[in-house]
Amino acid sequence: MAELKGMRALRFSAAAGEIGELCCPPYDIISEEQRQAYLARNEHNVIRLELPKGEDPYGEAGRVLSDWMESGIITRDEESLYVYEEEFTAYGQRMKVKGMICRVKLEEFSKGIVLPHEETLSKAKEDRLNLMKATGCNFSQIYSLYIDDGNRTRPRVDALSAGEPQVELTDGDGVTHRLWQCTDAEQIAAIAGDFVDRKLYIADGHHRYETGINYRNWCREQGIAKEGDACDYIMMMLVEMENEGLVVFPTHRLVRDLEKFDLQATLANAEEFFEVSKRDNVAGMESALTEYYNRGEKAFGLYAGGDEWHLLKLKSIDSMTKEMPDCSEALRGLDVSVLHTLVLERTMGIDKANMAAQINLTYTRSFDEAIESVKSGASQCCFILNPTRVTEIRDVAAAGEKMPQKSTYFYPKLITGLVMNKLGE
To answer: 173-187, 192-206, 365-379, 397-411: which range is least confident on average?
Structure first.
């Protein structure tokens, strides 16, 4: 079972300033220029805790958090569960996604209670562990999905968010964030009871989840925590998998610094598995790929400069069965698996270790950024992908397998700074 609890969240007080000036996006999508802009607007922005800088960045974050708690910039709520909603525009439509923020007990993936879907990078985990050691706090939520069999939880969440939100703000990207607080112990217990036989599927935040386990283990090794203490739990945002507002953007692949990149040889080798056709008008690439996506076909756009691009459409999924015989049908059928296995590895010689180290491969969710990277010469070529479906994420996780790094990009990102989880008194 997934074990849920309320949380005595840390939150900014009125003394800190307007809430819209205090929040920021997740640390890993913020440039240094953006970081400076947030601080210039309000010195109490959570970026000082989430993305500290300087000679002793982690120690500085710990000192700032302590100072803010002592001075009343940050205060602590009573035991609560929070309903969090984002309203945003995607694919030309105005949409909403709503879920709950609470504490969830950390479980090893091997138990099959909390399931990952994506591989992680060690450098990011080391950074987040150092920050947790210095602050003893979660500043960002892990984004997880659940299946609401029987439609038990949705009516509860809707009831808790029926009135005016306690907090509402619109960020610089036009995303409106709303927060409702529930302090009723019976209602919190009822929601927790819904999850007795449920699994949780991590959508975003794999690094932070694995870091949470590492931090819990470290605390026990240091003798500063025992089983059942606060570090056994981590802050999560839980969203129903059938929520109509769930949006996943693709993450495109940029190829750089290959010693011998030959476009014509790449295309010729790809013809073993793909129907390859040259297309004009790069601007129409995304809409062309969408047509194949809607038909359930596997197709990518390969761009290497100029105003032409090449469409690669998989001839038969049977080729993936041969290349990945020990993997599940769910993993073999992913667009990103097809691209990595049949093109990047087999055709271009970029193996899994190379991809993990990002030697010849980098990532972006921006189509324009991918194209411009090639035009500027920073990349030799790029592959434009269609998005992974939410059901595919569920099926891969349920099979106990993981997608390659950067396979999904849930949009919009959860804002940082509305609530924070202090791991102890």
So the answer is: 397-411
CB 133 within 8 A of CB 30: no
The CA distance from 143 to 49, in Å, is 20
Residue 201 host element (H or E): strand 200-204
Confidence of residue 178 (pLDDT cuts 50, 70, 90): very high
Sign of CA dihedral 386, 94, 191, 5: positive
The answer for residues whose C-beta is within 8 angstroms of residue 172's C-beta and 6 or more apart is none
pLDDT of 373 higher than 70: yes
Residue with tokens 């949006």: 247
3-state class (DSSP) for residue 73: coil
Are 50 and 419 in contact by the 8 Å Cβ rule? The answer is: no
Two structure tokens written together for 146 = 């659940």
Cα gap 419→23, rounded to integer Å: 10
Q: How many CA atoms lie within 13 A of 165 on its CB side?
A: 16
Per-residue pLDDT at 1: 87
Strands 233-240 and 142-146: parallel
* Token pair belonging to 38: 């947030």
Residue of 28 and 123 predicted with greater confidence: 28
Q: Mean of the per-residue pLDDT values for the chain?
A: 94
Tell me the CA distances in angstroms from 377 to 260, 263, 300, 405, one per residue in order: 15, 14, 21, 24
CB 308 within 8 A of CB 280: yes
Q: Considering the entire predicted model, what is its pTM?
A: 0.89
Q: Which amino acid is at 313?
A: K
* Alpha-helical regions (H) of 94-205: 122-135, 153-160, 185-194
Element spanning 65, H or E: helix 57-71
Please state, in angstroms and rounded to a whole number, the distance separating the CA atoms of residues 173 and 88.
9
Tens-digit pLDDT profile for residues 262-287: 999 999 999 999 999 999 999 999 99
Q: Is the pLDDT of residue 382 over 90?
A: yes
- In 256-295, DSSP assigns E strands to 274-280
Task: Find the length of the chain.
Answer: 425
CA–CA gap between residue 188 and residue 175 (Å, rounded): 27
Q: Are 216 and 210 in contact (CB under 8 A)?
A: no
